Amino acid sequence: MATSYELKQHVETLLDDERGTIFKEAPHRVALVYPSPYRVGMSSLGFQTIYRVLNQREDIVCERSFLPDDPDLYRQSNTPLFTYESETPVGDCDVIAFSLSYELELIGIMTCLELAAIPVRAADRGENWPLVIIGGPITFSNPLPAGPFADVIVMGEGEELINVLIDWWKDYDDRERYLRDVAALPGVYVPSIHGETFRTVAQARDTCLPAYSPIITPHTELSSMHLVENGRGCHRGCSFCVMRRTTNGGMRPVAPERVLATVPDYATRVGLVGAATSDHPKILDILCALVDSGREVGLSSLRADRLNDDFIALLAKGGARTLTVASDGSSQRMRDLAKKHIKEKHLRRCAELVRDHNMKLLKLYMVIGYPGETLDDMDEMIDFMLELSSICKVALGMSPLVAKKNTPLDGSPFEDHKSLETKIKHVHKKLGRKVDIRATSVRWSWIEHEISQGGFDMADAAEAAYRNGAGYSAWKRAIRDHKKGITPLRIPESERLQPGAILPDELASI
Ligand code: SF4
């Protein structure tokens, strides 16, 4: 059993390996908490950006905390969740801000709140508890299942609104009046006032861009990488994607010089982050500048139809050994339904580029289980994978469709578990050892689907699952006991894709 001293020692070791950590004092303290462990949280550009933005203020010190790798060690040693920078108990901070990326992180939010000795539900917190704010990628789609745990939710792009919320919080001494007043702000969702309704997604001014990470650490998924966005949003309209153009008005590219100005001299690895990094009109200029300065470069999203010799040569020179692209649908029929406009010829070209530039691997990501998908679609994919594997080494990732709110596929049912498992087995059997196959768990994808389509009922389910150990059976029982039905759609019925519908190539001109 670890002692409090040992838990704090571990955190100090992590801090020792960081560059860019901000230590300061200020009258008001915000705990910025990531409901997954450090390794995951420090790879989040949004989380790091809020840390940087809040610490630019003289009146605020913002310190980080994370879901511990093993929360039981905290429980057994009676160690309250504490901030990394000053080891202040999170429960003693004025404001606790969570960044929520995935549905299953609701468990992490409850765990962190309880480790901080704070009631998990806003309704059980009185005037004197810290203000609990939730923001993060999930708010672009469906924040309702997180609603009962939050006092305030920032919808969408939060780097400006968080300052407004904290300014107002400092000036109020009446929590209810504060909540009533901030509820009127666009982009702010106060679950206790707005109930199960969807609020508009906030958009930060272009002058706030680009988001970039102040801290570099070797202990993340993206080891020792400086993260910077080269554009915000996306101008395309893929039917499964929350970041499509209707969410925040299309892509706002950032000028190359502004992207490059964020990179500190000591950063040897740079990750370009964004919904559509390869769509930036000057992506080659940015890559060229980074690679010529001797840095390794990674991109968070590559579209197969944007890649060519020059692009891949730069990536390879920048240290990339694997080319990762999404094909998004098992067959051309399914890719048309996904509306991503990726065709076999684009993927074949990617395989040739991997081979020609001596890269090691082509990794393809595939969504399966779109409405109307059959084994024939899987067979088309299998034949094509065999063809690609004759060009270069191929790895295939398959994930069941989890229909999200704020997309045309909102409301699409999750495919029957047995049917999905049959498809996955069929692919394994046919592709054998020729392709390295990784499939996301059907059962956990189903839970994600239920939460992402739900409302406050899924907060009840999440709490019941949490109280019963948060394993699959606990979740299954909790969803069965608490599911009330489908929450309202976020986009008009007319914009939704009907099962089997193939819509025109509206983006052919891009
Ligand atoms: S999947 Fe990619 S290209 Fe399609 S809308 Fe989303 S971010 Fe844009």
UniProtKB/TrEMBL annotation:
It comes from the Bacteria. Residues 220-434 form the Radical SAM core domain. SUPFAM superfamilies: Radical SAM enzymes (SSF102114). InterPro entries: Elp3/MiaA/NifB-like_rSAM, Radical_SAM_N2, rSAM, rSAM_horseshoe, rSAM_sf. It holds the Pfam family Radical_SAM_N2. GO terms for molecular function: catalytic activity; iron-sulfur cluster binding. This is Radical SAM protein. The lineage of its organism: Bacteria, Deltaproteobacteria, Bradymonadales, Lujinxingiaceae, Lujinxingia.
